[in-house]
Design a protein that fits this description.
The protein is 39% helix and 15% strand. The chain has 18 helices and 14 strands. The relative contact order is 0.13.
């Protein structure tokens, strides 16, 4: 985190009688990043504080752009990968750009930006340095039923953590809320000099951001896709009970899918039933609570305990691509095979995800989510998503007049967790032609669980996207694109 003096020096500031100049267009220039397609970088100056009318301080947003490959061009689409806490530029830079062009139809420029508090845009940290971070209190990453003392330890540790954040970062925290990012987005829309309307695809927390900007600027919405919906009413109230509505269904699907595909799931050896596998898993989890397993991985001793295994399973539920990896790791733990157990380590998050409500909320969005937008919003909700259930998409949609919920029948998080050609075609048609799916439409996944080999075999001929394939309408290319996005968009590590 920048210290307060350094943070202020990083901002432009107009004082006295000087008139603060806000850039009205994006300053685009060639990026240094390598990519399959040309990438442009850009900067845009926006107000630092939209509420304090006496302040002339400004902030420079960092953007990236990949240009459309088809004519006629139909404007730009902004993206947010979720979090909250994930930088937006990373979603556009690199191998994701060609896939996103295919997924959106190729007629739009793709714009990524780092929201406040992410990347280099007002970096947010509760600690002044890594040494201080390393001394954070024990209990931050504990699962509450990992022991009979875990609830108390976790509560105390997170109380200390929250207070530390407030003391060290409250000046920054007041400036990085969702409402401010929504205003930044509309500044970007204005600076692009197009039609003044927002086109947007947001995932996970990005749906809260999308719902917020739509509620604040309803008459400036064009095509808005909110994919993997968080209930915005609950989010702003600090509630997350609804969020786990379908978690058990997703968890059960892992064992059902494993038994149905024993050739791709090592746990299915010996023809067990799904109930047998669940019982084995719970026995393993319980044993690790009292007797953690020490494995030697890459020459290093690694401890696998209750918390580690639960974290690995939770991470695996974000994408069905990781389910065979989880099965291999669980089989390794059950058979004391350290080589196979390493698969569990690969699923562990780098840092524990902690959600906090910063006390400085005077600039938070306080409006409602009951509006009629200029153009109807497309909500996409998965009925087996462990983190953003279908009911949240329906609850969010209920406040936006004319919006439609597309039910995606897959596991994993967002529509990318278990790709569907039907869902992909519906999203593409919405962006290209403004065509909404009929209310009640249900799209099932194209590939079943534990079928990664099938995906690889099907799309082996499309090893690399070219400008020709990106601009094509081949269904195989579209499904290949969303399958690649499933493996490359960050799914976890920030709470949702």
């Amino acid at each position: 985190m920048l210290s307060r003096p350094a943070f202020l020096l990083a901002l432009s500031l107009c004082t006295g009688e000087a008139v603060c100049h806000i850039t009205r267009s994006v300053n685009w220039f060639p990026c240094t990043q390598n990519g399959t397609l040309p990438i442009m970088c850009g900067t845009l100056t926006v107000p630092l504080d939209y509420v304090d009318t006496t302040s002339n301080a400004t902030l420079e947003l960092q953007l990236v752009k990949v240009s459309a490959v088809k004519q006629p061009k139909k404007g730009s689409i902004l993206f947010n990968p979720g979090g909250p806490g994930s930088p937006g530029r990373d979603l556009i830079v690199g191998a994701q750009a060609p896939s996103l062009l295919v997924a959106t139809g190729g007629h739009h420029d793709l714009i990524g930006f780092d929201p406040r508090g992410t990347g280099t845009t007002i970096p947010f940290s509760c600690y002044p340095d890594e040494i201080s971070r390393s001394t954070q209190p024990y209990g931050i990453g504990l699962y509450l039923n990992s022991s009979d003392t875990a609830i108390g330890q976790s509560w105390a540790a997170k109380t200390v953590f929250t207070e530390t954040c407030f003391q060290n970062a409250r000046d920054v925290g007041e400036l990085i809320g969702t409402g401010y990012v929504a205003r930044d987005m509309m500044q970007i829309v204005d600076a692009l000099g197009e039609d003044g309307l927002l086109r947007y695809w947001g995932f996970s927390y990005g749906t809260v951001l999308g719902a917020t900007v739509a509620a604040m600027f309803p008459d400036r919405m064009d095509k808005v896709v909110l994919d993997g919906c968080v209930n915005p009413h609950d989010y702003y109230a600090g509630l997350d009970v609804e969020q786990v509505t379908d978690s058990d269904r997703s968890y059960d699907g892992f064992f059902t899918g494993c038994v149905a595909h024993p050739e791709a799931c090592e746990l299915a050896q010996g023809s067990p039933t799904p109930a047998d596998l669940k019982r084995q898993f719970y026995d393993l989890l319980y044993s690790l609570k009292y007797e953690p397993y020490v494995a030697t991985i890459n020459g290093n001793a690694t401890i696998f305990d209750y918390n580690a295994l639960k974290a690995a399973v939770q991470n695996a539920l974000y994408s069905t691509v990781t389910w065979p990896i989880l099965a291999t790791g669980l089989h390794g733990l059950l058979t004391k095979n350290d080589t196979a157990t390493a698969a569990v380590a690969a699923l562990l998050p780098n840092t524990p995800a902690v959600s906090i409500q910063v006390k400085a909320r005077r600039r938070a969005y306080t409006g409602d989510f009951h509006v009629k937008t200029k153009n109807p919003i497309l909500f996409v909700g998965s009925d087996r998503d462990a983190f953003t259930p279908l009911v949240s998409a329906r609850n969010a949609s209920s406040g936006f007049e004319g919006s439609v919920v597309l039910q995606h029948g897959g596991y994993g998080h967002t529509s990318l967790g278990q790709p569907s050609l039907c869902t992909a075609k519906a999203i593409r048609a919405y962006f290209v032609n403004s065509t909404l799916p009929a209310p009640g439409t249900i799209c099932e996944p194209t590939f079943g669980l534990f079928s990664n080999a099938t995906v690889e075999q099907e799309y082996a001929p499309i090893a690399n996207f070219t400008k020709r394939t990106v601009g094509g309408d081949d269904e195989r290319v579209l499904l290949s694109a969303i399958t690649r996005l499933n493996t490359r968009i960050p799914h976890s590590g920030h709470g949702l």
